[in-house]
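User: Okay, second chain of the day. Same drill as before: sequence in, structure tokens out.
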Amino acid sequence: MLKHPYLKHFNMRDFRACSLCWIVWIVVIDVVQDHAEGADELFKPYKPDTEISQTIHAALKGRSIRLMWYSSSSSVAVKPVCSYTLHSSTGTLAHNTEAGVSYSYSASFGGFHGTLHDVVLWDVVPPFDSAQVWNLSYQCRDHSEFTEPEQLLLFSPATGYEDVAIALVADMGVLESEDTMQSINAALRNDSMSMSMLVHVGDISYADDRPAKFNSAVWKDFLGDLQPFPRKALYMTGPGNHESQFNFTAYHNWFHMPYEESNSPSPDYYSFDHLGVHFTMISTEMDFMPGSPQYAWLEHDLREASRHRHRVPWLVVTGHRPLYCTSILSHDRCTKEAPLYRSYIEQLLYKHDVDVYLSGHNHQYERTYPMFNGTATAYNFKNPTAPVYIVNGAAGNIEGNDRTYLPQAVVPWRAFHGTHHTGWLRMVPSRNKLSFVYTQSKGNVVWDSFEIVRKHADRVNIQ
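Assistant: Same drill. Structure tokens below.
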């Protein structure tokens, strides 16, 4: 329940069941912010200051691991340090301590207060030719004592396992996401399935839905709510429209993704390999039309990934905005914007045999059959000749979810759609199979599952 005298009887869970009530919500928020005395109370941070362990998050940097965290009390003069031990099945591989950098950033909106810390643990990810799983035990500090040791399992970029999964979300903020965060963290503790990574395809904290002075508090609370996942597994992110606030200033400072290792000219788009999947993370918030720097990079990245399918067989492209969708509430996105975006890159995705295009933006879950040029190329997922398009934007946020979908008869190419409940997607890659499970967050109910099956020897490398 939202804590405000004007909204004390307002229940967001009941509200979001109404597909058109978002208009009322905008009006209510405008009235409360502009006219209600003490309106800032609605947006104040609802959690106390978090420690290092509540904001630390791990990400890939080539064959290295980057650890970042926030501190409200230390200064940029403090040098952060992480000590680690690396183990394999054959014994201890390394024991080392790495120093990093501390920094702050100025913002005209005055919304950042504190210090961010960045430490890289070099060459701790198994090489491509290794099938071993390495165990990284690490502790970090800035001005205080070391944190408790954390364990991070690291896998070969080229090898998939039947019992190792990747979590996929988009449009997950501080509010209305508690069920999804709890469900993902419950999966992290599942003994039968290891969770190695969370890929977040834009709209990360919804800090821009709060007054600017609370910007850093929202990001801090978001990472704290998401724990322990981002400190016990890898957390890879891409920007969405809600990160565009103040020219992406907060996003660029809180998350450093491996764009330089991807030969990308921008921190907003990059690629990496993990568990036999090549992830190409584009930014639909930047120009990606033919002739743009991002398009040129995308074309080169997909060409290189196609050449190495024998080593990393699967190719997944992510972008915040969908290329195929069927929402009624977001009608213009699906009938005007999506076809425009397809005119930019669909031919490129098809040419390079991309397996999946994963998006969010619409606050719902749906997926297509293999698609090209507005038509399903098949009504199954066995050796598809075109990408499958998934909208996975129902993880939960302050704006609520969308339960409106066009009738199936109008969009026969849609293979499945969800409900208004929050949820998230799990992907398990193996050599010849890419398995997906969509879980309704509340109650951990499996709502959808499907598999893409391929004979990779049949693929043609595009030069």
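The longest helix spans residues 331-351.

User: Thanks, on to the next one.
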